[in-house]
Specification:
Layout (H helix, E strand, L loop, with lengths): L2 H11 L3 E5 H14 L6 E6 L6 H10 L2 E4 L2 H9 L7 E3 L6 H8 L4 E4 L2 H10 L5 E6 L21 E2 L3 H11 L3 E5 L9 H15 L7 E3 L17 H19 L4 E4 L3 H4 L3 E12 L4 E5 L8 H5 L5 E3 L7 E7 L7 E9 L6 E4 L20 E5 L4 E5 L4 H5 L9
Parallel strand pairs: 1-17, 2-3, 2-10, 3-4, 4-5, 5-6, 6-7, 6-8, 8-9, 9-10, 12-14
Antiparallel strand pairs: 1-11, 11-12, 11-16, 13-16, 14-15, 17-18
Helix pairs in contact: 2-3, 2-9, 6-7, 8-9
């Protein structure tokens, strides 16, 4: 999308505003499927948690994707978007047995990541197909908060507990149709991913009724010019060869599954904000905008760097700014960043705002959550209205105080 198009969208729908480019999502989806074109049965389960707008989910379905969900609410969103139950995998962590039972009764693929629930569910529903999430004890990910395959992680059943899994499966006679792992997000070294995959292949040999092996995702996208990204094409060549060899040894064709979220939608999103104030202090020039970490928490939570472009003055002389929000505590998007000269009233665009931005937004400071727009077939479509004061107080109950 061009800067003038983004400016027109900001003028029409106001700011702050999330804008998603459907063409970019489509490009990333095709890039991933092309990388694994040598696999006979490939299944892409889009990770709903990255960006859960129903219109985006409908577009994913149009592309041919299935979905990965982590809550019953995400399952319900998927069903509302038109996905069939068999196109949904449910991979929760720490939820109640009741929630898993409710989802299972909908016909959704269940993925269990702890021994206690595995035994309880297998005892009650031995004929219901279940996938098992393994923790390979492999450290991957760009931040400790998103590295989920290491030994201290709360996710998955340890590879050292395989004997316990096998005992439960034997005692309950439950049906295991899948094996799964997810090492973490922002994977830089595909050799680490391939090493974890070997652990998953070895684990899979213990189960004779598998239909699929799910390798999770965590593929890194570039967040700034010259940034490192996961070489998905190289991974496709190497993992395809290994997966096909495993299927041959296993005795039948299995499905290779992935659960990409950020890889598909991150680069498709831009977050537009309005510059309220340019504030000069004794040491810093602040560009203060009409948003904060209530709308884009990743820089404060993960130390993530989102490129920031002044689309009102893209070719202006570059100066150094700290871009900060309007939240009543430290609320910094960028420190001492080179950006084309900013004036009050300009519109700034935060890049890579498609994943884990709106989905992690809040009403902190009683601020409204922004609107969302999908750029589809050269037209801006409003896919979520901006909140109003009624939305803030809708579920609050006023009591009479004597």
């Amino acid at each position: 999308m061009q800067n003038n198009q983004l400016l027109e969208i900001a003028k029409e729908f106001g700011s702050p505003l999330y804008v998603y480019n459907a063409e970019t999502i489509s490009y990333q989806y095709k890039r991933l499927t092309s990388a694994f074109k040598g696999v006979k049965n490939l299944r892409i389960n889009y990770a709903v948690k990255a960006l859960s707008n129903v219109s985006v989910l409908k577009f994913m379905k149009k592309l041919g994707s299935n979905i990965d969900t982590v809550s019953i609410q995400e399952v319900q969103l998927g069903l509302k978007a038109g996905f069939e139950p068999e196109q949904i995998i449910f991979t929760p962590n720490g939820v109640s047995l009741q929630e898993i039972e409710t989802v299972a009764k909908l016909g959704v693929q269940i993925n269990i990541d702890n021994l206690s629930i595995l035994e309880q569910f297998g005892t009650a529903y031995p004929k219901t197909p279940v996938c098992i999430r393994i923790n390979p004890h492999v450290m991957a990910g760009g931040n400790t908060n998103i590295s989920v395959g290491h030994i201290d992680s709360k996710f998955g059943i340890s590879i050292h507990q395989i004997p316990h899994i096998l005992r439960i499966v034997e005692n309950t006679n439950m049906h295991i149709n899948g094996i799964h792992m997810h090492t973490g997000s922002d994977i830089l070294d595909i050799d680490v991913f391939l090493y974890a995959s070997e652990i998953l292949f070895e684990t899979a040999k213990n189960f004779k009724t598998l239909e699929f092996i799910d390798f999770g995702s965590g593929f890194k996208v570039p967040y700034k010019q010259g940034d490192i990204e996961t070489n998905i094409e190289e991974l496709g060549v190497k993992l395809t060869k290994r997966f096909n060899a495993f299927c041959k040894a296993y005795g039948r064709e299995l499905t290779l599954a992935f659960e990409p979220g950020k890889f598909l939608v991150s680069e498709a999103g831009q977050f537009l904000v309005h510059v309220n104030v340019i504030k000069q202090t004794t040491s810093t020039v602040f560009a203060q905008v009409d948003s904060g970490f209530n709308h884009l928490i990743r820089p404060m939570l993960y130390g993530a760097q989102h490129d920031i472009v002044n689309i009102s003055n893209p070719n202006g002389r570059e100066r150094f700014y700290s871009v900060v929000g309007y939240i009543c505590e430290t609320d910094t998007f960028a420190n001492n960043r080179r950006i084309s000269e900013i004036n009050e009233g300009d519109i700034l665009a935060f890049k890579n705002a498609g994943a884990y931005c709106y989905s992690m937004a809040s009403n902190y400071n009683s601020r409204y959550r922004p609107a969302e727009v999908l750029w589809y077939k050269d037209k801006a479509h409003l896919i979520r209205k901006r909140e109003t004061f009624d939305d803030i107080i809708n579920n609050q109950i006023e009591i009479v105080l004597d």
